[in-house]
Amino acid sequence: MIAKGDASAGKRCRVVILGGGFGGLAAAKQLGDPAFEVTVVDRQNHHLFQPLLYQVATCGLSASEISQPIRSILARQQNARVIMAEALGVDLAARTVRIESGELLYDRLIIALGSRTGYFGHPEWEAHAPGLKTAADALAIRNRVLQAFEDAEATEDPATLQRLLTVAIVGGGPTGVELAGAFAELTRTVLRRDFRNIDPRKARIVLIEAAPRILAHLSENLSGKALGQLQSLGVEVLTGTQVGEISPEGARLSTGELISASAIIWAAGVQASPLAKSLGIPLDRGGRVGVSPDLSLPGHPEVFVIGDMAAVVRPGRSDLVPGVAPAAAQMGAFVGRLLGEELRQRKAARPVFRYFDKGTMSTIGRSRAVAQLGSIEFGGTPAWLAWLLVHLVFLMGFRNKLAVFIQWVYSYFTYKRGARLIISRPGQIMGS
Amino acid sequence: MIAKGDASAGKRCRVVILGGGFGGLAAAKQLGDPAFEVTVVDRQNHHLFQPLLYQVATCGLSASEISQPIRSILARQQNARVIMAEALGVDLAARTVRIESGELLYDRLIIALGSRTGYFGHPEWEAHAPGLKTAADALAIRNRVLQAFEDAEATEDPATLQRLLTVAIVGGGPTGVELAGAFAELTRTVLRRDFRNIDPRKARIVLIEAAPRILAHLSENLSGKALGQLQSLGVEVLTGTQVGEISPEGARLSTGELISASAIIWAAGVQASPLAKSLGIPLDRGGRVGVSPDLSLPGHPEVFVIGDMAAVVRPGRSDLVPGVAPAAAQMGAFVGRLLGEELRQRKAARPVFRYFDKGTMSTIGRSRAVAQLGSIEFGGTPAWLAWLLVHLVFLMGFRNKLAVFIQWVYSYFTYKRGARLIISRPGQIMGS
């Protein structure tokens, strides 16, 4: 692991990939040439299908159904190894990555560590309003909401009941909208018969969005459709509303209202992985790295930054490449292919990355959705079926087993009851 | 919840059931008559299919696949309600059960709280050798073993490697045997290709049993078969060997050997729920209550103790009813039916409980097993298929959906990769 030496002719090209998410793994899979020695570093042992995390938080799926061990994904790629460790820093001059147990030397470095929940300069809010970026996040939210219903069943005090039966979601982007719709369905249908003292259908699901409309990146037409779908599920949508303060008492809104809830879920912002700060170049407001057109770090053609950590300009447009899974995967594949081509013909000019927007979809509950592909917009069942298909194909990209496919479909439709576990061992939890 | 009053003619008969396991739920299901008001109390929100817990510990299934919310199971039984609480004590004179938020009054009480891991008077061993009784237990074991393999991949010190690649199981009964076989299969097959520095097939799986043979409750023939099956999987079986001491260094055996392992799993003994002590009658060595032939508490015909908490004499035999799931279910159904009959014809003599032994099976890995039904013994594939069928039917008793059945079968056979998650959020785990 601690090794010195140059990548000279005859030696293998050592590619270190930080992060086993969509970007990192897409890159690894393009680097199968035995001339490469690929090392994937991730502090988790599994790859998480983040677009479906909201399902875990709302008892629709279990965490294991949207995860795969990174080792398993790369098991048959002989030139690839996996190290479960946290990347602590990069030394660009020495071309090493620092991890707890030592240093990794690289010839090429691909930084794909993703993003974490961002609180717009209020990190103290995290304690009261957790985000949804990891499986542990999702399970904690699920536990909290289910426990709140249990406590409500045993309570008679009206103020306490009100709080326990309220779930607040901050952020009307895709994550927030999907969470809100799924929570509404959970309380209106799945939990409906389970209690005798409380009526889960009376739970208050509130979605708070600062912009004038939810899903602001979509057209007004689609925003409106989504709004209607959420409201038909009984979600309370507060647009043009900001969160001014979050405390143990709840969230104080710009309208003056103090929302007290069993869970306040922050889906309003992300920040690029803090490792970006160690790269020594200015970052944008989201902590992202302004990369060159070939996704490399300015001044360092041997280092690439992809996925949510990269601020990628889109030629001819004013917006950047969005921080979504397909974009990360495209960037990873692009860099992997670029390195492969460079290996074979050293002096070629590097290509420019172009993001191919395959459309965007958001589901609202299990039968409603909105979708947009280029200028085509649609909602309702066709949108939802399209969403289902895309996600299943994407998932199956890693899990190419028909049996698993069938299992997953049934699981999704039958509201896996087991995904409603509250598992706890007070004082001694070692993980789940 | 805090209520006084007699169960006089015209009033409903309040049945409180402590425990939502096999015994408690079997009883509840027999008490559907609206003349009963059934309350099930459990400190977990889910019913766990314990016979398959070893699968969760060995990455074969996820916890959600062998669990169901108790509320969900009883959702359609209108006369039944569920309280998620810990039963703290029973006042036999006042006919109340104490829980944290108050008291529950009962006309009939069914105590079915099961058992916990027992350390034969060495409770201090629990910290170093956890048992396998809850989903949290299973996940903690899984996490520990998987993390040990990750650490081993990054280690070069031979002594550390030796420890990290050793799993020790204490107790050669069904649980220990099943754990050993499943761990051996996990390391020999599933994890085989995942690592580059270590060879998981070299992991040492040790099964320690004090008696001269494993599965001592079965015939010598079957014990021998099981031993052969375990050894063919590479498990090291040490019979006639006791554990003298367990410390942070490891387990000191009666042979003198000190076994240092990533995980020492205690499957050697159980103790009845400590609530039994509050009943004011002498208990046996396992903490169990010596019940009358109708499973009631001596001197208290309105109180029943069933499942692992009950020491039930078998007419004409010297052994007691075993602490297994089918026995608990039979006892629960027996008591439920008894109460129903009593409701209708008050003066009838109570029946005597008879345990119908439907046979016993243990699997060793995914294709080996031993089974015994009465005097019929068999091993190999027929035994394993029988095991599969019985467990699936048992599971489906609660989950009568074909879709879920298919899903479970596929899951079992495809070694759910997601069941290999290590999920952790240091310092802030709220459960899983």
Description:
Two copies of one chain form a homodimer. The first copy, chain A, is an alpha/beta fold. Chain A has ten helices and 25 strands. Chain A has helices at 22-30, 53-57, 70-74, 135-153, 158-164, 174-190, 220-232, 325-344, 380-396, 402-413, and strands at residues 13-18, 36-42, 46-48, 67-69, 80-84, 89-91, 96-99, 102-105, 108-111, 115-117, 166-170, 204-208, 236-238, 243-247, 250-253, 258-259, 263-266, 270-272, 289-290, 296-297, 300-305, 310-311, 360-364, 368-373, 376-379. In chain A, the strands form eight sheets. In chain A, strands 5-2-1-9-21-20 form a six-stranded mixed β-sheet. In chain A, strands 13-12-11-17 form a four-stranded parallel β-sheet. In chain A, helix 1 runs parallel beside helix 8. The longest helix of chain A is centred in the C-terminal third of the chain and has 20 residues, at 325-344. Chain A is elongated and about 75 Å long. In chain A, 51% of the residues are buried. Chains A and B meet through strand 4, strand 5, helix 4 and helix 10 of A and strand 4, strand 5, helix 4 and helix 10 of B.
